[in-house]
Amino acid sequence: MLAVLFAAIAAATAWKLARTYDGPPPVPPRMRAQAPLFELHDQQKPPDRVRLKTWLGRHTILLAFFGGEGAEADPLLRRLRDDYDALRKRGIIVLGVGTTLPQENRPPAEDGPRLSERQVERAFPFPLLTDLEPQLVVHKLWGRVDETTGRPLRGLFIIDRAGRVDVEDGHPAPVPDPQIALDALLR
Question: Which residue, 43, 46, 70, 131, could crosslink 138 as a Cys pair with Cβ 3.0–4.6 Å?
Fold first, then answer.
């Protein structure tokens, strides 16, 4: 009886070891390095100078580079705005970096100094920082400039509490799929 059981286990083990799997190839680990520091103006009136190092070492930071069409036109920034309360409850800081001027990132004035409900709903609860063209200093520092056209690129970076970010080819590497990354952070 024991010999039959031993033979069955040996056969199952041999079959399992000889079988090939069609799963995804293993993902090589990414290199990590300290996040490049910067200071930029936000959308407040008058604009405040925002320093990345303010939050390093204390929080996870989501750094979202958005296009020149403005924050409202960017689906990733709208998602970050919608999920902001849940991210904040997890101690996650959100920063947006774009090429639009600070006044272009503010909600439009409708009825004088007080914001209407619509304006409050459209306002972004996190800093939207301005990296001016043509210099794009922060975009270049983070590898978010198309080398062929010189245009800014979008991307989401996750900076861990130690201030480290994935790097690739000497620049910080954005997450491959921002929506999946946000879903994982919100679980």
Answer: 131
Query: How do residues 107-118 score in pLDDT, each as one tens digit?
Result: 766 545 554 444
Q: Which DSSP symbol is given to 114?
A: S
Angle at 176 between CA 91 and CA 36, to 5 degrees: 60
Least Cα distance to 104 among 78, 69, 77 occurs for 69
Locate 174 and state its tokens: 């954005």
Closest CA to 69 of 101, 107, 110: 101
Angle between helices 75-82 and 178-186 (to 10 degrees): 10
At 65-113, the pLDDT tens digits run: 998 788 889 999 999 999 999 999 999 999 999 999 888 888 766 545 5
**What is the spatial distance between Cα 155 and Cα 73, in angstroms, rounded to a whole number?**
14
Rounded to a whole number of angstroms, the CA Rg of the chain reads 23
**Ordered domains of the chain (ranges, CATH):** 31-107+118-156+174-187 (3.40.30.10)
* DSSP H/E element including 84: helix 84-89
Residue 70 near residue 105, CB atoms below 8 Å:
yes
**Sign of the CA dihedral running 90, 66, 179, 52:** negative
Q: Collapse the DSSP code of 1 into the 3-class scheme (helix H, G, I; strand E, B; otherwise coil) and give the result.
A: coil
